[in-house]
Design brief:
By secondary structure, the protein is an alpha/beta fold. It folds into two domains: about 150 residues, Rossmann fold (3-Layer(aba) Sandwich), CATH 3.40.50; about 150 residues, 3-Layer(bba) Sandwich (Glucose Oxidase, domain 1). It is built from eleven helices and 14 strands. Strands 6-14-13-8-9-10-11-7 form an eight-stranded mixed β-sheet. A six-stranded mixed β-sheet has the order 2-1-3-4-5-12, sandwiched between helices. Strand 4, helix 5 and strand 5 form a beta-alpha-beta unit. Helix 9 packs parallel to helix 10. The C terminus is likely disordered.
Length: about 325
């Protein structure tokens, strides 16, 4: 069973790291810091947070140093990424699993950060979180649903229960019925394709796989899913929970396929034959509404109602972690 980090508390120091790209707008640094402070935490900038190297937030070495610092620094309770973009996969060969395994902490990010979430789960046996980031949601102001999910998932050492939906949410759509339970693994679909053929390739066996993506035409989603299906990583999957896939419907003039299937038609055609529950439109992804979803804990997916329920706590109470160390 993966190690769970200590639950966050108001006033905890939260390190902000940038393991992938720097923000387009430099004001996002300070606005993200202010946003985390308003949420009740004490943000701490990683030493190279504001570094830049082309499309990357500093050199590979600087970004690795910041991750190691954030986990090893005893005053830091949790780590929130600044943004995604590109570059996290470049760091994987440089990371020592023992360093992170010895210092389990809350780690949150999405999009390109998927590569690190997967690394920490598979190589370090750590629960991590697919959720809002400092330079994005906390810089612009998280929605009530996003903030409630973030705080509830990271501060309460009890099962979160159903993720629910934000007020007025209409995207959730059950595609294939049934009920399944399993360990959660997931993130941005493109990153799972990028990890194929590497030491960090992911298997979905006995797991509920959750994914989302951004700015991919239905034929591109079909191509990625087909590649993953043909690679065998879907063998033994228990269920599939799909988030909001922003910009993934066909747009006139964006491709040469004028008579194009809808995204949900592609999802049913490619994933339906697996014979497991499939739900589209769970509130996570690159949109404004964003549930914080833990990787490495058990969940239940209901393909009839469309609900994803977290069945166990994703964080440990400080007292239980202390007592375990004393045993």
């Amino acid at each position: 069973m993966p190690q769970k980090p200590r639950a966050l508390r108001r006033g905890d120091k939260i390190a902000i790291v940038a393991p992938a790209s720097a923000p387009y707008d430099e004001s996002r640094y300070d606005r993200g810091i202010d946003g985390l402070r308003r949420a009740g935490f004490e943000p701490v900038e990683a030493p190279h947070l504001r570094a830049r190297r082309g499309f990357l937030a500093g050199s590979d070495g600087e970004r690795v140093e910041d991750l190691v610092w954030a986990f090893e620094e005893s005053s830091i309770a949790g780590v929130v990424c600044l943004r995604g973009g590109y570059g996290a996969t470049r760091l994987l060969p440089m990371l020592d699993p023992e360093v992170f395994r010895a210092h389990p902490k809350v780690f949150v990010g999405y999009s390109d950060i998927t590569a690190l979430n997967v690394f920490f789960l598979q190589e370090c046996d750590l629960v991590t979180f697919y959720g809002p980031m400092a330079g994005v949601e906390f810089a612009t102001g998280p929605t009530p649903y996003t903030e409630r999910s973030f705080l509830g998932m990271l501060m309460e050492p009890t099962p979160y229960g159903p993720l629910g939906t934000p007020e007025g949410w209409t995207l959730r759509k059950p595609l294939c019925g049934g009920v399944a339970e399993g360990e959660l693994v997931g993130g941005c679909l493109t990153l799972f394709e990028a990890l194929l053929g590497t030491p960090w390739q992911v298997s979905f066996r006995d797991r509920i796989f959750f994914f989302e993506d951004i700015d991919a035409e239905p034929y591109q989603m079909d191509r990625t899913l087909t590649h993953l299906l043909q690679s065998g990583v879907f063998e033994g999957v228990r269920g599939i929970a799909i988030g909001e896939c922003v910009g993934c419907e066909h747009e006139e003039g964006r491709s040469h396929y004028d008579n194009c299937q809808s995204l949900c038609e592609v999802l049913v055609e490619r994933l339906g034959p697996l014979g497991v529950p499939v739900v589209y439109g769970i509130p996570f992804g690159h949109g404004k509404e964003k549930a914080t979803i833990p990787l490495g804990v058990r969940a239940k997916l209901n393909g009839d109602t469309g609900e994803l329920t977290i069945l166990e706590s994703a964080v440990e109470s400080p007292s239980s972690q202390h007592s375990e160390k004393e045993v």
